[in-house]
Amino acid sequence: MIALDALVRLCPPPAEPPPAVDWPQAERALGTALPADYKQLVETYGDGIFDETIWLLVPDSAYDDCNLHTQTTERDEILADLWEYEDKPAGLQEAGAKVLPWAFEEGTGAFLYWLARPGQHPDDWSVLYNEGRGPLWEHHDMGCLAFLLAVLTGAAETEYFGYLYEVLKPTEHRFATADQTLG
After folding, report:
1. What digits encode the pLDDT tens for the residues 100-113?
2. Which of the listed residues 14, 21, 115, 132 has the most CB atoms within 10 Å of its CB?
3. CB burial class (10 A; 0-12, 13-18, 19+) of residue 58?
């Protein structure tokens, strides 16, 4: 809860609470439980974009681009095709390991995934960043909320998202709902 409080102070959520999510139904549809920090993010912000850069996927979004179920199906198909010709990243070499998308980067084709290993509790899943239009994957040994907070504060040790500070140079952080941006 501390990371969520820090994120809310840094980047205020929408004044209007997002629609409630039927978590048991969402998890049944995905065939897996989801991390508690992700549920907190969705319940606080809903579908939308942080700093015009990171789109949060949510179950049953009215927008396919932001819909967790739609994007999971699409990413599974794309990655299955890709891995017929390219090697999987190291974390996915383990039998039964898989990725599930939880966010994507505006305009780049890059996705943020959870790395779900067999027998691992969802709260212990870590983050994988895939550049989208290339073979590079970057592993972050933290959950999605901690990673998002690290990116927005500039504390993330990543080859990506540097332009947030080099180009955008936000003086305050902003979250825009999918309805505000796409509707």
Report:
1. 999 999 888 889 99
2. 115
3. buried
